Amino acid sequence: MIKFNELIFERFEINIHKYPTLSSLAFVIFKTHLLRKNEIPQLTAQVARDIRQSYTGGAVDMFIPENPEGTKVFAYLFYLLNK
After folding, report:
1. Three-state SS at 3
2. Which residues contact 11 (CB under 8 A, 6 or more apart)?
3. 69, 4 in Cβ contact below 8 A?
4. 37 vs 34: CA distance, rounded Å
5. DSSP-derived secondary structure for 4-72
6. The whole model's pTM is what?
């Protein structure tokens, strides 16, 4: 994590701790360093069709473990420090 944070900060001057997911981090890098001001990019033609065909949505599974009565359950939580 420390090396990844250093890499992103050195290349893009962005603190990874402000973004909870890789996709949100990638999006902010794109917006701040690659997207021209006042420009809304739009895909057209075959590229747009190919992307739309591959877009099937995400699979979300929920796992609820059941432990035997009287056993301890440990949970590890991660809190964002720089919201």
Report:
1. helix
2. none
3. no
4. 9
5. HHHHHHHHH---GGG-SSHHHHHHHHIIIIISPTT------HHHHHHHHHH------------PPTT--
6. 0.46
83 CB-near residues (< 8 Å, 6+ apart): 18
Domain ranges of the chain: 2-40
- Judge whether 25 and 14 are in contact, CB under 8 Å: yes
pLDDT digits (tens, 9 = 90+) for 6-38: 999 999 999 999 998 888 899 899 888 877 777
Summarised one tens digit per residue, pLDDT across range 39-66 is: 676 777 887 777 777 766 666 666 676 7
Place of tokens 């021209």: 36
The pLDDT of residue 47 is 73
Structure tokens at 75: 């949970």
